[in-house]
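> @MW can you paste both from yesterday?
MW: sure, first one:
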Amino acid sequence: MLIAYCTGLICICTGLLVFATVFTVKNYWMLRAMSPSLPGKHDEVPPVRADQPKRGLRYDSAPDARTGADATEWTGPVTPYTPADRR
């Protein structure tokens, strides 16, 4: 009796898992079809011009001959910002 109960429980759980997986995959493909496509890493990327800066390239504020970072630092006024819900 216990074996039949466990077998039935395993079958029901497996069925629910299959249903949830199919439901999730269908929603994923539906949302992917409705969303605007973003360029992936294997899509063709337009060539970067020599005078155009590279995106995502960050420089340290210290002068560095290799990166061409400037020796000047910002010394102007700094206005602190605190959101209204924080104190």
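MW: second:
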Amino acid sequence: MLFNMVNRKDIVKIQTQKVVHHEVKSKTSAKIISTENYITGEENLVVVKDVKNCNLILNSEVNNKITIKSLTNVTIKPDKNLIDEEWEEMLVERGACVQFFFVGDSWYIISSDGIKLM
């Protein structure tokens, strides 16, 4: 199978939207944070950088799916129960990326690049 090469300037980012109570809301959002403590909100992606260590709490009250990209050391804790029904917290090191999904009453790791310590 042959693939055509595409220039990066030819790639168009498409913003998806969802309608909630007749209001159009952005479906994808991202935040870059540089604080020692952070509680996730409605964003789908959090990039953590420019801080030595960060304590991040996954907030299931406002979001059920989130990706954390770490450019520093980040300790991730669930707001309820355990991560993967086993871990009270997890440490992800610089360069790691982990995706979480809240199902039932627990946060589960659904994707990870494997650069983490538990």
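> thanks! Residues 42 and 63 are 5 Å apart (CA to CA).
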